[in-house]
Every structure is written in structure tokens, then in C-alpha cells.
FAD-binding protein (Phreatobacter stygius), 392 residues
Amino acid sequence: MTLHRPTTSAELAAIVAEARAARTPLAIGGGLTRSGLGRPVQAAAEISTRGLTGITLYEPAELVIAARAGTPLREVTEALAAKGQRLPFEPMDHRRLYGTTGEPTVGGVAAGNVSGPARINLGAARDSMIGLKFVNGRGEDIKSGGRVMKNVTGLDLVKALAGSHGTLGIFHEICFKVLPVAESEATLQLGGLTDIQAIEALSTALGSPFEPTGAAHLPAGGGEAARTLLRIEGFAPSIAYRSGELAKLLKRFGMLETIAQDQAAALWRDIRDAALYAGSGTAVWRISVAPSKAAALGAKLAGRGARLFYDWGGGLIWAAVEPAGDAEASFVHAQAKAAGGHATLVRAPDAVRLAVDVFDPPAPPLMAMQKKLKASLDPDGILNPGRMYAGV
């Protein structure tokens, strides 16, 4: 396969224009840490964004940072940390889940809308993206948004392209709004709850004025008791007060204890990265559903032998199943849809991902809109063809 590695946006646009003229399908890659997500792409050439690197703007006083797509995410987080700031959406690192090397890139995070446990309070990656530069399938270099937060009229391409997995355009620069690092944080734990009890406790906490930035439940298994976790951030006096109030609020579920900070940090990294499934041969599903439906859906999945944990107060279920056959795709999609949610097959062998719906197929009206957007930005279907849906 031919590998293109442009170092400027002009080179990127020229490569795409030439590929369009030749009707050459292109696979889009960056750090290749999560190339196992989505349907395998059948392409004749690959474009790597790893030559498009560097922070192009950082204004700490304005809480804004911009970087080229191939910039390692680490460089951005280190630059922010030096000024006491952070990306608020806590991006997942897929390397342990997939067993990959390399480094996550800024473009990959934006293209996948990659977010972590803090999304429940601080929003997803797309909510922090305020500006985007990309080359579409016509070979046109397009800018959308800017470097300040503002009201948007018409189609907001920044939000529309976040999570498009390289199927609508190849990102070459992204601008994010950032936040200060919290002065302190604490992780509070309830032990031994059932899934139903845990989700009720988490929902109670999330409905309170005490603003958790993480809410997860790890069911019992492997000799470990169940753990129900809440994370709060802010100034030390605020954390002390909110911890006390949450203990009162959740008294009927048991004693709320505070976990040591180093242990808590490791736990949240494991939850963020779905590291409970690292190194195993299972297929892994990510299911988004209303927390009120999570325990019942979890029970059905567990009844089929799935290993589970819950993030976002139960609004996100991670489930590991045996990958044989269709990785339970028909069952998982049907049950998620019946519960008013949707499922994504995050990890499975290539043969399985080619044979089943990796992303939950949208309703016909939404699929029609998806196809129209694809036709507008990539009329010849050369960018990551079939990555999200077969034939799109």
C-alpha cells in the first residue's frame, strides 16, 4: 500500500485531489493506537497525519490551545499542565485495550470524539472543540469555527465532523477550549452494592448539587467485591463539604469512604481506558443508554456471559463477550435499541468487524442525512470508505 505523509496542509490537499481524480480510496491514520475501532477499511493508499505536528497557538489567559493533527496528545497535555490547565474531556488512551504502541494524536482524539469519565460533567471532546481545519474528499482545504467561543448559525461543521472517524474529512488542525486543573480531587467509594443499588446511588449523587466529575461502578468479580465510585474536584474546603453532604445523601447505601489519591488515579485511568479488558481475547462493546435502563440491560448481557462495568453513572456500559461468530452483535444491538440506547463494537477480530454492524445503524431518516453529508464533503467516497457503515 502506498503511504503518503504530508507535512503541510497544501501537500495534504494535493494528495487528496490526486486520489480523487484517480478514484483511489484512502485510509486515514495518525498514531495508529486505535486502528481496531470501526470496520476495516479497504483502501489502495494511506495518508498519515504524523508529519503534521506542532502546537500552533496557546493562549493560557484565553483558555485556548490549537495544534496540528499529528501532534502527540502528550505534547498538548504537557504544555497545558505547565500552565496548570487541562483538556476537560479526559481523552481515553486505547493502547492497553488494543495492545498497540505509538502515541495518541490530537487529530485522532478529535476524529473519534474520544472522551473519558469527566464527560458526564465537563462534556465530550466535541464540546471543547471550537475550531477545525480539514481537507475534504474534493481536495478542498476548509476552515470551520475559530479560536473563541461564539454562537453558531447554520451547520456547525466542527461538531458534525467530531466523531466522523476520517470519513468526511482529514483534520489537519484543531482548536480546543481548555480548563484550569482542579486544585484538589477526592474519590469516594461505596462497597458491595448490586448493579441496581449502585446505579441508584450514582444517579442520586449526579442529581445533587455536588457536581461529581466521575461516577462508575465495578461489579463484583475475580475475587473482588463490587466498588461504586464518585469523583469530585475543586478547592479543598469545597471537597470536604461536598464529601460530607454526599455521605449524608447516600447513607442508606452504606458508608462512603475516601480512597487514597494514588489508588484513585489508577482506578480512573483503568475506567477511562477500559483497561479491565486489556490483554484478553474478548470482544468489547461500548453501550450508551439511559442510566435508569442500565441495570436491566446489564443483567441481560451478564446472562449471556458478558463481563461488565458501568461509567457515567450507568449511562455507559462496557461489556466484554467472546468474539466467536458475530460477537453477540445482533443481541447487543437489539437490546441496546430496546432500551433506547445504542451500541458500538469497540474491539473484535477483523473478520467479525467486517461481518457485523460495528456502529449502531441510524434510523433511515438519519442515515439519509449521513449519506447527504458524505456526498457533499466526499462525493466519490474515497476517505476511509466503509469505516463506519458498509457502503458509506
About this structure: Residues 184-272 form a domain with the Alpha-Beta Plaits fold (CATH 3.30.70.2190). The mean pLDDT is 95. Residues 236-249 form the longest helix (14 residues). The CA atoms of residues 287 and 343 lie 4 Å apart.
